[in-house]
Write a structure and sequence with these properties.
alpha/beta; 7-stranded mixed sheet; 16 strands; 18% strand; globular
Length: 500
């Protein structure tokens, strides 16, 4: 490493890199042999600890982000909602197994995707579970003959004559031994030229949250002054002005170049005529919805922008459907800047300008902490933290905030009218659900908390088909309550935003 930073001729530089790579490969071989010898001598023991499982998986995704981007592969994860947030297992050895399996999946996949699944397949007691984890790829696949031998020591597959992949042929053998160490099972299912699924089981226990030292990330905020991206062009496809503008200032805050489109058709046209790295795509829009637009965009060429779906409807089954329809990732509304930046850091590692210290305890509301206007507002109507975030991101620009507020009032007035019209004569369920869904996202974005809670309850009833048990008069009463809370919320929002 030190030698590479000295004056070298181009040929010497190549020789040094060959030596460096060979040394790294030799170290990996020695580590594999050492692990295997410990396993065979029964000297390797489990060391369990409590950890946040979803955060653990996010870290793994982050680890492979550069390689996934280099090969233009998509990575999806699907985690069973019944898996506890905190689990007790050997985090280090679980990481070793998953790192090997995900690394292999990426290595042998030239196009398509790598998917991670985790599900509960058995519950022994209230706090004890058996999990099954699977890595599914769309790669070259493995013949039945090779599947019988693939977990043997030093076994490697050469898919083509002359093709040789780096490695010792010990990785999968070690994985299987580690899985057996925690009394699990491991296997593979594969079809040549279609892909492979490697799976294993692992017994875990539910971890007590009060025993966990909170992850520093959950206690800290991103220092917005130090997190920046370079040459990142983002298209926001969203039909509501408030949602557009708030997403826009979030992105511009970290150095992105931002363009806007008001519906899926405009978004599709923009992608046809311009180059974008990422598209934030609302799901429900007039003229052309986000799912249809995403399918058309993905059909344009092999190199299309990353598409992140946005919706107030964050139900697992719906999210899975969005991803199956062509979207690459998903964020729930109201959009949180830190969730957005985490996604961007994962997908665009190469465009991230790394600061000296990304994570620091920053109170983004400090400029407004003593704002008497905010202190006088009834807190049951609004979410003060959201409004302070809007003021902070907009640099407390009164003209801009006033424009944002007026757009919110205009959009809400129109949406409530649409909801009323959909009930008036023949009940138009799809139109009613669409209007209420849009209001749900809009009220969350601007911090109208009481209105957002009321809308969320109504939306849940509509989505669960409970409107069939509610007569027309009751539906109209729901909308009247929403309208009344909206009227009460407007002056509170204006006062909290400092524009009353």
């Amino acid at each position: 490493h030190l030698l590479l930073n000295t004056q070298l001729s181009p040929q010497q530089g190549i020789y040094i890199k060959v030596i460096q790579e060979s040394s790294r490969n030799l170290l990996n071989i020695l580590n594999d042999l050492l692990t295997l010898s410990k396993l065979e001598a029964n000297k390797l023991q489990l060391k369990t600890n409590i950890f946040d499982f979803q955060y653990f998986i996010r870290n793994l995704k982050q680890l492979f982000a550069p390689l996934l981007m280099q090969k233009e592969l998509y990575f999806f994860s699907d985690i069973d909602s019944h898996i506890p947030k905190y689990i007790v297992a050997d985090e280090t050895k679980l990481s070793q197994v998953l790192t090997n399996l995900i690394g292999n999946a990426i290595k042998f996949t030239d196009k398509g995707s790598v998917k991670f699944y985790a599900e509960v397949i058995k519950q022994y007691e209230e706090d004890s579970f058996l999990l099954k984890m699977s890595i599914v790829d769309t790669g070259k696949g493995i013949s039945k003959q090779h599947q019988l031998l693939i977990f043997e020591h030093f076994y490697q597959i050469d898919h083509n004559i002359g093709e040789k992949h780096e490695g010792t042929g010990l990785g999968l053998a070690i994985c299987k031994e580690l899985v057996h160490l925690w009394s699990g099972e491991m296997g593979v299912h594969s079809i040549e030229n279609q892909g492979s699924t490697f799976w294993f089981t692992i017994p875990i226990k539910k971890g007590a949250e009060d025993e966990v030292i909170k992850d520093n990330r959950q206690l800290k905020k991103i220092n917005l002054s130090s997190l920046k991206f370079k040459n990142l062009h983002v298209l926001i496809v969203e039909d509501k002005k408030v949602n557009q503008e708030i997403a826009k200032i979030m992105l511009e805050e970290v150095g992105c170049e931002v363009s806007l489109a008001n519906n899926g058709a405009e978004g599709l046209e923009s992608v046809r005529n311009h180059s974008f790295d990422m598209v934030l795509m609302d799901i429900w829009m007039p003229i052309m919805d986000g799912i249809t637009a995403s399918r058309h965009i993905k059909a344009l060429s092999s190199k299309t922008p990353l598409i992140i779906g946005l919706s107030a409807n964050a139900i697992a089954e719906d999210i899975k459907e969005y991803l199956n329809q062509g979207m690459d990732d998903f964020l729930a509304k109201p959009l949180d800047p830190y969730d957005l930046y985490e996604k961007m850091s994962y997908w665009f590692t190469d465009k991230l300008i790394k600061p000296n210290e990304n994570w620091s305890e920053v109170n983004t509301n400090k400029d407004f902490k003593n704002n008497e206007v905010t202190d006088q507002v009834p807190s049951e109507l609004i979410q003060v933290a959201v409004l302070e975030k809007i003021k902070s991101l907009s640099k407390n620009n009164k003209s801009y905030i006033n424009q944002l507020f007026n757009s919110f009032v205009a959009d809400m007035t129109e949406l409530i009218k649409q909801a009323e019209d959909s009930i008036q004569e023949d009940l138009q369920k799809e139109e009613l659900v669409r209007s209420i869904h849009t209001i749900k996202g809009l009220t969350g974005t601007i911090g109208a908390s009481l209105l957002h809670r009321t809308i969320s309850e109504f939306y849940a009833k509509l989505k669960n088909n409970q409107e069939e048990q509610i007569n027309k008069n009751q539906l109209q009463e729901y909308v009247r309550v929403i309208s009344s809370i909206f009227q009460e919320t407007q002056p509170a929002l204006a006062q909290a935003l400092g524009i009353a």
